[in-house]
Amino acid sequence: MLRKINSINELEDIFNEALKEHAQSVAVELTIPGQHDTEFIINRYKSIRNKLNYYKRTYGENLVHKKVSSIKILSAGYGDADLW
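RE: above sequence
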């Protein structure tokens, strides 16, 4: 299930929970420039640590992309790959 989040710490908590639970995937919902709808990115279990490090480097504390302010992470969650 996706949860609305407001900080990079909340995102990190979700990724860490997914690792602990051996979830098959983590989904991240974000805004995309020029699109009215949001986009979902699905990260598989084997890449969870790598993707978390990427998000921490690329997004600020408030989940806004450091170079493109119109990209923002809105929610995240983990579960079976078939859930998404």
